Amino acid sequence: MRKMLEEKYFAELREAIIAGDVQRARECAEKIVKEGLDPLKAIEEAIQPAAKIVGEKFEKLEIFLVDLIMSADAMKAAAEVLTSAIKAKRPLKPVGKVVIATVQGDIHDIGKNIVAALLVANGFEVYDLGVDVPALKIIEKAEEVGADVIALSALMTSTMRGQKDVIDMLKAMSIRDKYIVVVGGGATTAEWAREIGADGWAETAPEGVSLIRRLIEEKRGVKP
């Protein structure tokens, strides 16, 4: 019975996100929580696959930018409900603090939102600054909250430079060593991360969470 409920509600959530239906996506997520289903599993088995499908459709020009934005909003609405449920069950000391943002000039946030949701699900305290965020604003937030990690997303080759700008500004302010800086996004690569002096790069959201956890462990010298 539980398996059938998961399949039913997860399928409904995927469909709502792909359709860009914000209200329906939120309602689906609320039903998942109400039925006592695993919110992390919903993120992994409903939100992530839906985001991948939407991204592929956009790359193939099967949907327009407005459709992509609507799907991103639907995904964000559902993720907020699910991550709130996860937080309510995990009042433990956070694994680490992460400031995450899509860099200046870039308005894409589907991938970033999934990473943020998975980080919360894995016990991190996350400060999501949204999209098109200037380098100085990202650094100011990291300083304000005492972040361990700065995570930077860029989907387009024309906006990748924004990731380097953050690292260059950290160096100019003589605080580069205070933070673990990781980068990701469709246009980025491991080579790019090395070139700009980032501490790591991940291709997928789950890999990003694992990378951040490992880098924090290495920096602290002990497991968090």
Task: Describe what is shown at a glance.
Helix content is 60%, strand content 10%. By secondary structure, it is of the alpha/beta class.
How many domains, in number, for the residues? 2
What is the tally of helical segments? 9
The top level CATH class name of the largest domain: Alpha Beta
Across the major sheet, the strand order is: 2-1-3-4-5
Order of helices and strands: HHHHEHEHEHEHEH
Ends: how far apart? 37 Å
Relative helix content: 55-70%
From the alpha-carbon coordinates, what is the Rg to the nearest angstrom?
17 Å
Assess the beta-strand content as a share of residues: 5-15%
What is the CATH-assigned architecture of the largest domain?
A: 3-Layer(aba) Sandwich
CATH superfamily of the largest domain: Cobalamin-binding domain
Weakly predicted, low-confidence segments: none
Structural class: alpha/beta
Write the CATH fold name of the largest domain. Rossmann fold
Largest sheet, if any? 5 strands, parallel
* Shape, per Cα inertia axes: globular
Mean pLDDT score: 92
Tell how many strands the DSSP assignment holds.
5
